Amino acid sequence: MPTTKYDAKYGGFWNRFVACLIDLVLIGVIIFIVVDVVYHVLGGSDIVAGGTIENVLSFLFLILDWLYFAIMESSAKQGTLGKMAVGLVVTDKRGKRLTFGRATGRYFAKWISGKILIIGYIMAAFTEKKQALHDIIAGTMVYQRGHG
User: Fold this and answer.
1) Which residue of 29, 43, 66, 107 is most buried, as measured by CB atoms within 10 A?
2) pTM of the model
3) Whole-number Å distance between alpha carbons of 74 and 129
4) Separation of alpha carbons 97 and 79, rounded Å
5) Rounded to an integer, what distance in angstroms lies between the CA atom of residue 125 and that of residue 38?
6) 3-class DSSP assignment, residue 1
7) Distance (Å, rounded) from C-alpha 117 to C-alpha 56?
8) Where are the domains of the chain?
9) Is residue 27 classed as helix, strand or coil in its secondary structure?
10) What residues contact residue 71 under an 8 Å CB cut-off, 6+ apart?
């Protein structure tokens, strides 16, 4: 086990679930505002008829969602606003802050966790170190802040 100030307690499934809900609401509001602005800037209903707006908005959603998670989890805070609210931090296996690249890998590995009937997420409730599939793929850990 790595020596880190966080190794006393892994971030449990329910804390991670609550953090995820908080993040979904926050990023949802942010993306809704940005998408609404982009929709009106691009001409609204005229573009919808051609199907272009859906592609632009989907791409915008992906970019904003990815940047939110990757930037926040690789920041000095080591977690998204939802994770901070419930006292969680994301680290590499040695307890060090994630690089932007590793945080990006973790973000896209979440797609795999979700695509297999969310079993990849549920794994966090049953694995020894409370790792979800995307944590195992990306080589990351989630710890409860303030322990150790």
Assistant:
1) 107
2) 0.84
3) 20
4) 10
5) 39
6) coil
7) 27
8) 13-144
9) helix
10) 100, 103
